[in-house]
Design a protein that fits this description.
The chain is α+β, with helices and mostly antiparallel strands. The chain is built from 3 helices and 5 strands, in the order αβββαββα. Bound molecules: guanosine-5'-monophosphate (5GP) and zinc ion.
């Protein structure tokens, strides 16, 4: 993917503030951090989003998110972290090379990944279940 910026960053063609690197992944600081330490985990092999990941890459990415999050707690003093993979324009994805955000959360920090809980009737839930299950 010659025109993909995250292919270039992950493979070291464009420099980045690298937190971690191995043969398959690079994790680097987000240019526009939501909180101090906001890191992106990016596989070196191009996949547009989570729907194109193989099982091994997906598993390793999530395990790596846990390790980096723990390091953030020890090193930066955050008390939690959000692991987020925006998928599709409507979900806020702007770079179409899969990446996982690891966003440190601090006790006195702003709310970042939050939503107002809604509700469903039993009938709505049944329709929703049918729609998703029949498409799987
Ligand atoms: P998305 O909105 O696709 O889930 O996340 C893309 C993220 O990449 C954003 O948080 C944005 O700040 C970050 N970003 C975009 N371009 C660059 C870049 O060139 N370098 C780095 N380090 N982060 C970038
Ligand atoms: Zn790419």
């Amino acid at each position: 993917m010659d025109d993909c910026i995250f292919c270039k960053i992950a493979n070291g063609v464009i420099p980045s503030a690298t937190v971690y690197e191995d043969e398959e992944f690079r994790a680097f600081l987000d240019l526009g951090p939501a909180s101090k330490g906001h890191t992106l985990i990016v596989p070196k092999k191009h996949a547009k989003d989570v729907t194109e990941l193989d099982q091994e890459t997906a598993g390793k990415a999530l395990v790596l998110a846990g390790k980096i999050g723990e390091a953030m707690k020890k090193g930066l003093g955050c008390t939690g972290f959000n692991v987020v993979a925006n998928t599709g324009v409507s979900a806020g994805q702007t770079i179409f090379h899969f990446h996982m955000h690891v966003i440190p959360r601090y006790d006195d920090g702003e709310k970042i990944v939050e939503w107002v809980p809604g509700s469903n009737t039993d009938e709505e839930r049944a329709e929703i279940l049918d729609a998703i299950r029949s498409a799987l």
